[in-house]
């Protein structure tokens, strides 16, 4: 399985899990819809949208330079300004993509994770979102992801975090 296929499979599984949580709570449903809409826009942009087209154009410019000057064209002093220009353009594409698509998707994930999970399926989705978006390591996410999951599980199932800890050997 290729990395792209693996990423697609994981994305589709996450989206299916999110869709399976709909219909239990209007607040939850609104947040799930917001997250899925943002994720769809980000995926479309990356796959065939403006960011993809700009990156494709950059790749074609780099291929043209490599065809004309060899694969080590970036090492040539006379082409260093062009290499820097292309690198800056690539950085600008990444910055624009982050501002327009990635950051709003991350914010939608943040908002969704903050809402109490209405079902065990929703709690499992929150675990996946915290992991996928690395919310546990995001300075913009001021809430403890593990505490959120523990609270949801305790509320939904009655299992407290200490109840799920492995028994100590005697």
In brief:
This protein has one domain. Helices cover 72% and strands 0% of the residues. It has helices at residues 3-20, 26-48, 50-69, 80-114, 120-132, 145-157.
Task: Give the arrangement of secondary structure elements.
Blueprint: H1 3-20, H2 26-48, H3 50-69, H4 80-114, H5 120-132, H6 145-157
Explain what the structure shows:
The protein has helices spanning 3-20, 26-48, 50-69, 80-114, 120-132, 145-157. The mean pLDDT is 91. The chain has 6 helices and no strands. The longest helix has 35 residues, at 80-114. The chain is elongated and about 70 Å long. It is mainly alpha-helical and 170 residues long. Helix 1 (3-20) runs antiparallel to helix 5, helix 2 (26-48) packs parallel to helix 3 and helix 2 runs antiparallel to helix 4. It has one domain (13-160).
Question: Characteristics of this structure?
Answer:
170 residues; mainly alpha; 0% strand
Q: Quickly count the domains.
A: 1
**How many angstroms does the end-to-end distance come to?**
45 Å
The count of strands amounts to: 0
Structural class computed from helices and strand pairing: mainly alpha
Number of distinct helices? 6
β-sheet strand percentage? under 5%
Overall geometry: elongated
Global mean pLDDT: 91
> What is the multimeric organization of the chains shown?
single chain
Task: Please give the largest β-sheet.
Answer: none
Element pattern in H and E: HHHHHH
What Rg is obtained from the alpha carbons, in whole angstroms? 22 Å
Low-pLDDT stretches? none
Helicity range of the residues?
over 70%
């Amino acid at each position: 399985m290729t990395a792209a296929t693996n990423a697609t499979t994981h994305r589709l599984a996450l989206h299916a899990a999110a869709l399976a949580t709909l219909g239990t709570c209007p607040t939850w449903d609104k947040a799930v819809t917001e997250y899925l809409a943002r994720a769809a826009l980000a995926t479309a942009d990356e796959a065939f949208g403006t960011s993809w087209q700009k990156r494709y154009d950059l790749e074609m410019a780099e291929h043209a330079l490599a065809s004309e000057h060899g694969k080590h064209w970036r090492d040539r002093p006379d082409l260093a300004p062009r290499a820097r220009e292309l690198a800056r353009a690539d950085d600008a594409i990444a910055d624009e993509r982050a501002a327009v698509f990635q950051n709003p998707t991350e914010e939608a994930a943040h908002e969704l994770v903050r809402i109490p999970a209405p079902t065990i399926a929703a709690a499992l989705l929150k675990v996946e979102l915290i992991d996928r978006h690395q919310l546990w390591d995001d300075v913009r996410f001021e809430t403890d992801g593990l505490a959120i999951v523990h609270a949801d599980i305790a509320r939904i199932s009655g299992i407290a975090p200490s109840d799920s800890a492995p028994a100590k050997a005697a």
